[in-house]
Structure formats: C-alpha cells, structure tokens
Protein: Chloroplast import component protein (Tic20)
Organism: Flavobacterium flavipallidum
Amino acid sequence: MDKESKNIAIVSYFTIIGAIIALFMNNEKKDPFASFHIRQALGIFLSFFLIGYFIGYFDSWTISSAFYLFYFILWIYGFLGALQGQMKAIPILGEQFQKIFKNV
C-alpha cells in the first residue's frame, strides 16, 4: 500500500461525493486497498440513504437518533481503518458491501 492509495481510501469516506471522486481517482490503477475502502464507503452512504428514507416515516427522535448513531459508528470504524492502513470490513454490513460492489 502506497501513500496515494491510502489518500484515495481516506477521500472515499468524505460524503458520497468523496466516494465518487475516489472511484475516479482509483479508476486507472485499481489498487486493492483503495478499492476495498471505496466499496465500504459507498455501502455506508448508499445504505444510509436507503434505510434513512424509511426511518424518516417513524415520528420518533429516539429511532432517528439511534439510526444516526449507528451509521456514525460504522463511518468512524471504516475511516479509522483507512487512516491506519487496515482492510477490516465494517461490522454487520461490510462483507455484503464487498460482494455487492465487487466490480468497483
């Protein structure tokens, strides 16, 4: 893992736009470390929007707060993995994200 792939992995965790930018940055080289974290970040952001849409129908701040806290913890876990140069899948959903986005 070189510095460029680590930077791409870190960029991927900064909003969905950062994940898309990282996807284009990694397009030529296809570094496995960067690709791993791009898949994790894309999965976090897309599932957040998808599940968040349905959570919005609950008129409860406790459900909404728990949802935001859960995704914030997943994001922190992935982001710290990228900072530390580790390829650890996020808990619960990480392995599924690797399978779903295997072409990234």
In short: The two ends are 18 Å apart (CA to CA). The chain has a mean pLDDT of 93. Helices lie at 3-11, 15-25, 32-55, 61-84, 94-100.
